[in-house]
Amino acid sequence: MDKAPQQMDEIPNQREVAWPIAFSVAWGSLRRRFMRAMITMAGVILAIAFLTYMLITDNVNQALLGLRSDAVNILLQKAGVDILAAGATDQMMLMLIGLSLITCLVGIINAMLMAVTERIKEIGTLKCLGALDSFIVKTYFIEASLQGIIGTAMGMAIGFLIAILIALSYYHQYVFPNLPMGRIVGSLSISLTVGSLISIAAAILPAYWAAQKAPVDAMRVEE
Amino acid sequence: MTDIPIIRTVNVKKIYRMGTHEVHALRGITLDIKAGEYVSIMGPSGSGKSTFFNMVGVLDMPSEGEVFMRGHPVSKLSPSQLAWVRCHNIGYIFQSFNLIPTMTALQNVSIARIFAGSSPAQARDEAAKVLDQVGLGNRIHHVPGQLSGGQQQRVAIARALVNQPAIILADEPTGNLDLRTGEEIINLLSKMKSTMGITIITATHDMKMLSASDTVVRIKDGAVESVQSRDEIQISVGTIDGKTLA
User: Fold this and answer.
1) Domain tally, chain A
2) With contacts defined as CB-CB under 8 Å, which chain A residues touch B176?
3) Do A11 and B72 count as a contact with CB atoms less than 8 A apart?
């Protein structure tokens, strides 16, 4: 360490904290606030379940239509599938899916912004202990994305199960032999991508906002 | 350069703007704090005591004037250097303890060590050692909600100590504690001063703090009203000062 003549030794830069540590802090915070996290996740679960359900139901219907069997077509009509219009995209449905995804995006942002406001003092304290803005960004980003990604996974599972159960109730023995596995995997990847993108998009703003809090916020008196 | 004061404030002013209105919270405070001193900053609420305390603690920047930390002008430091100073040079103790509620006592202390660059395993060992020193060796896996006020403040003290800072900054450390626990905390602070040579700076209303202090700085209306050394305090306690401030 070189010494400036009139001063004590140079003040170095604070070290960055590695991602795995930020991850364990974020994970600990989620675990202890489990109920809160579940409520935030509920929005994602519902939206992604809806999306997955719509996609998989369409996959199954398309596969059954492809059989060109009169018996199956009667079942499809009973289930309310418009055989003539099959294959065309349903604008109304797309809009509904879009709306539910936007609602879910706004939901996570809202919940995370509230979490930041509640924890201003906590953030200030961490900064007093030497946390850099980047550490705060990392933990809040991980916390929000984890909620989004776990919610996405749960939503996918629920959407898939419901789609299959409903298909079974209409088409009975025709479902399993004709499951279009390739397309279903495709639909699940769409759900996963959409869910993850939404979760990450929703995590950016709160994480950035959290990092703006000042160390002096630790001194706030109200709890 | 050993006689550089650990903290020097030069004509520190703080002005808050509320719409068109200007509030002068600090009107120019010049003060030296020597290394190894126990300094109490006293003053009624609204006196600017907290504002000054935050400047001294590198938590807030003055509108005018300069704070020097071991000779370094604080306003010239980058955010990363400021974080380094807060992490390595200053240990903070808060009135409401400010433990992270989702972390155990051990995690609360070790996170400070991790910020200072320790590996998680090393940080845990060091944190456990310090928690043991403050008398909490058997409660390290409890979360703050499972600890009493006094115990929480001990965790906070352990957290402040774990990076072996030169300065401990304690904001009303006894404010949320009962009389006896408050005294224990004051004794703990005095012990840190005498055994480790740590500079202790407290903001307080607590008269018990006075007997432990080397210097008492009284702030009134954003300016220093008086700076008294321990000998002068002994004389004045129990007379007019004692009655008005108790």
Assistant:
1) 1
2) none
3) yes
Task: Report if residue A74 sits inside a domain.
Answer: yes
User: What whole-number distance in Å separates Cα of residue B95 and Cα of residue B61?
Assistant: 21
- pLDDT value of position A6: 44
β-pairing verdict for B7-18 and B38-42: unpaired
Alpha-carbon gap: B229 to the closest alpha carbon of chain A (Å) = 27
Residue A124 lies in a domain: yes
A127 neighbourhood in chain B, CB within 8 Å? 83, 86
Q: Mean pLDDT throughout A178-204?
A: 90
The residue among B204, B239, B234 whose CA lies nearest residue B219 is: B204
- Provide the residue type at A8 as one letter: M
* pLDDT, tens only, A53-78: 999 998 998 899 888 888 888 888 88
Quote the domain boundaries for residue A154.
43-216
Which residues lie closer than 8 Å to B68 by C-beta, 6 or more apart?
A: B5, B7, B8, B9, B10, B74
The span from the CA of B145 to the CA of B150, in Å, is 12
> Is A150 contained in some domain?
yes
On whether any CB of chain A is under 8 Å from the CB of B175, the answer is: no
The pLDDT value recorded for residue B245 is 45
User: Which residue does chain B place closest to A212, by CA atoms?
Assistant: B79
Q: Roughly how many angstroms between the first and final C-alpha of chain A, as a whole number?
A: 43
* Residue B2 forms contact with A (CB below 8 Å): no
Which tens digits make up the pLDDT trace of B54-93? 999 899 899 999 999 988 999 999 999 999 999 999 999 9
Contact yes or no for B169/B146 (Cβ under 8 A): no
Task: Answer whether residue A54 is part of any domain.
Answer: yes
